[in-house]
UniProtKB/TrEMBL annotation:
Species of provenance: Streptomyces yunnanensis
Protein name as catalogued: Transposase of IS4/5 family
Length: 50
């Protein structure tokens, strides 16, 4: 089930090819989860938390 502000499978299939390939550093386990987190923060920013 897709939560609010998360990418659907169809949307992810369009976004995934646009991401840069992993070259150096620690590989991200789930790139889709990272993108969903960025989108969620853009929609609902944490106010006053650092």
């Amino acid at each position: 089930m897709v939560r609010r502000h998360e990418l659907t499978d169809e949307s992810w299939s369009m976004v995934e090819p646009l991401l840069a390939p992993v070259r150096m550093g620690r590989p991200v386990r789930d790139r889709r989860r990272v993108v969903n987190g960025i989108l969620g923060e853009a929609v609902h920013p944490l106010t006053g938390r650092l």
